[in-house]
Design brief:
Helix content of chain A: 25-40%
Mean pLDDT of chain B: 89
Largest interface: A-B, 36 and 27 residues
CATH class of the largest domain in chain A: Alpha Beta
Strand order of the largest sheet of chain B: 1-2
Helix content of chain B: 55-70%
Low-confidence stretches of chain B: none
Number of domains of chain B: 1
Order of helices and strands of chain A: EEEHEEHEHHHEHEHEEHEHEEHEH
Distance between the termini of chain A: 34 Å
Number of domains of chain A: 2
Structural class of chain A: alpha/beta
Distance between the termini of chain B: 24 Å
CATH architecture of the largest domain in chain A: 3-Layer(aba) Sandwich
Largest sheet of chain B: 2 strands, antiparallel
Structural class of chain B: mainly alpha
Strand order of the largest sheet of chain A: 6-7-8-3-9-10
Shape of chain B: elongated
Oligomer: heterodimer
Radius of gyration of chain B: 21 Å
Shape of chain A: elongated
């Protein structure tokens, strides 16, 4: 598979604040690429630079082998995107919104095709309703329809499940998978939720404070054999002491007093819990996270890994 | 993409917005009220106005006709139309930024220069349509109600009489000039809308600039005299020049004449330069603008 999107040493500064710092990653043709980071990590700024909405301070972006700076319009013919929340014309109907953006895509798109696009996101029955009466989920789906209307090869979705209910999240997830598996589209999907990315992405990059932390195939990053345990007991001090004096001592990590964090193998989880119970420790909660989730959570809580 | 497509889309957006029709409604209401007022009390009003002339002139015919009404309406209303123009032009970019649709627009394969020029043309068309609407109400409906005759214009030191057969082209030219003046306001408001994320700012800024410039015009201070000829507000009432006629030795109007055509053309030139300047500045700023909304 060839590289469809290549971001190289991308930097964006606003005065003295660096929002994106020397970021590099690449997206292969046909894959769903997860772009993961906390809120404010620099995901939307990066996506805006990829779409040429804002100018980078440094670095380069190539899409389909062309520089976005030099070949913006040529590239955007093959790109569909929703950046942050999909804001649409509230005084128009869903169909009218789609029609307006379809015309801007410089392709003659028949009414039947527009309706098909609305059907794809489950809005064909609400096509004549004004957008101002749409729910957040419906607006999100209409935004995706706007991104898809000109049949682009690369689809960029910035936090597509934000503000959606569980059913809406599942619908968007299924849509992403369908676009990738059935239509062979390449997708760059940003999110601040690892669990979302795990379910749809083939590869991903995690960024924090504008910098790349890790990039790779999701399967490789999510090592199922290694887990991090988060344990809350009736006597955390004693439990920590017991673990420190056991075979798990190497895996014991710094954590606030209210909980204990231990890196271990998945097989060892029942043995460790039995060990604590046998030493009269009452366990209130024992949560097993895979290594990447733990890594990501440590970032969001501000702890060093 | 086809340029006409962008203009078409932008016009569609303008005329789908309810706020667009505020201006049309306001003009119809104000003009209608003025016409109603003159229809009810016009004769006594005209008698009062003609009092000083009745000793020197024998005035016959329908003085309070549609042509005079249109002149009164234009003079009264054109001062307030900039606000109605700014209502739409000031919303062209800032409104999209406020709604968040600007970023979605710019993810489509349309060049920034084409988009901004397309939007500019659409707002210019709106301005012209609004002036046409005003012309229909102020002129056509006034003629229907009050009829047509020679036009008498009372000035502080003289009375100008324009033959009925020589009036209509002057109105066409005057409305054309007024459209150019409003286009200048529209382009200023459009330019200001690039820097705001809601339309209140550009509308207020446009009106503030017009008020400040108008005050500068009225101040007879040497420090401001050098800039006055180049302020667009000094030329916005240049349409009146089309109703200043030249007379021959027998004090009769020369049909088709304009007393000071160079002054009218100079005013038009200054306005055109402002429109071009604001458009060019808008293109340059928009091409470099980071879309953060």
């Amino acid at each position: 598979m060839s590289m469809l999107l290549e971001v190289t040493h991308l930097t964006k500064s606003f005065g003295s604040f660096t929002a994106v710092d020397d970021l590099s990653f690449s997206v292969k043709e046909g894959e769903v690429y997860g772009f993961l980071g906390q809120n404010g990590a620099g995901k939307s700024t990066t996506i805006r630079m990829i779409l040429s909405l804002i100018r980078p301070t440094g670095g380069s972006i190539n899409i389909f082998g062309m520089s976005i700076e030099k070949e913006r319009e040529k590239i955007l013919h093959q790109v569909g995107a929703v950046v942050e929340k999909p804001d649409l014309y509230r005084y128009m109907t869903g169909y009218e919104n789609l029609n307006v953006f379809a015309k801007l895509s410089n392709k003659k798109i028949a009414r039947a095709e527009l309706m098909k696009c609305l059907e794809l996101v489950g809005l064909d029955k609400r096509a004549k309703d004004p957008v101002r009466v749409y729910s957040q989920g419906m607006k999100q789906r209409l935004g995706i329809a706007v991104a898809l209307v000109h049949n682009p090869s690369l689809i960029i979705l910035d936090e597509p499940t934000n503000g959606l209910d569980p059913q809406g999240i599942a619908d968007v997830r299924n849509l992403i998978l369908m676009l990738s598996k059935e239509q062979g589209k390449t997708l760059l999907v940003s999110s601040h939720l690892l669990s979302e990315m795990e379910q749809v992405a083939d590869s991903m990059v995690i960024i924090n404070k504008g910098k790349k932390l890790v990039e790779g195939k999701v399967n490789a990053l999510l090592n199922p054999d290694k887990v991090q345990l988060e344990i809350i007991t009736d006597n955390n001090m004693l439990a920590k002491q017991l673990i420190a004096n056991s075979a798990w001592s190497k895996g014991l990590r710094n954590a606030p007093d209210q909980k204990i964090l231990v890196d271990t193998s998945a097989d060892a989880v029942p043995i460790l819990s039995r060990y604590l119970v046998e030493h009269n420790i009452g366990i209130f909660s024992l949560r097993s996270m895979n290594s990447l989730e733990a890594y990501f959570l440590s970032l969001t809580s501000g702890n060093e890994v | 993409m086809k340029f006409s497509n962008i203009v078409h889309i932008e016009l569609y957006k303008i005329f789908r917005k309810p706020r667009t029709y505020i201006a049309f409604g306001a003009i119809a209401a104000i003009v209608g009220l003025i016409q109603l007022g003159f229809y009810a009390d016009g004769e006594s009003y005209m008698k009062f106005g003609m009092q000083s002339l009745s000793d020197s002139f024998d005035v016959n015919g329908n003085i309070m006709n549609g042509y005079l009404m249109a002149f009164i309406i234009l003079q009264t209303l054109l001062v307030h139309v900039p606000l109605l123009i700014a209502l739409v032009a000031g919303d062209m970019i800032s409104g999209e930024a406020n709604q968040g649709t600007l970023r979605l627009l710019l993810t489509k394969p349309v060049s920034r220069a084409n988009l901004i020029i397309g939007k500019f043309i659409a707002s210019a068309i709106y301005t012209i349509v609004l002036l046409l609407w005003m012309a229909v109400w102020a002129l056509a409906i006034s003629i229907m109600i009050f009829g047509a005759d020679d036009m008498l214009i009372l000035k502080s030191d003289m009375v100008t009489q324009i033959l009925a057969s020589d009036v209509m082209w002057r109105y066409v030219a005057a409305f054309g000039f007024a459209a150019l003046a409003m286009l200048t306001v529209s382009s200023l408001s459009f330019f200001l809308s690039l820097f705001a994320e809601n339309s209140i700012g550009p509308i207020m800024a446009t009106m503030s600039i017009i008020i400040v410039f108008t005050i500068l015009n009225t101040l007879d201070l040497p420090i401001f005299n050098a800039v006055k000829p180049y302020l667009f507000t000094s030329h916005m009432l240049g349409w009146k020049g089309f109703f200043d006629v030249t007379v021959n030795e027998s004090n009769e109007q020369i049909v088709g004449s304009i007393e000071n055509l160079p002054a009218v053309l100079f005013s038009a030139g200054i306005l055109v330069l402002h429109v071009i300047g604001f458009l060019l500045a808008s293109v340059i700023v928009f091409k470099r603008k980071d879309i953060m909304s």
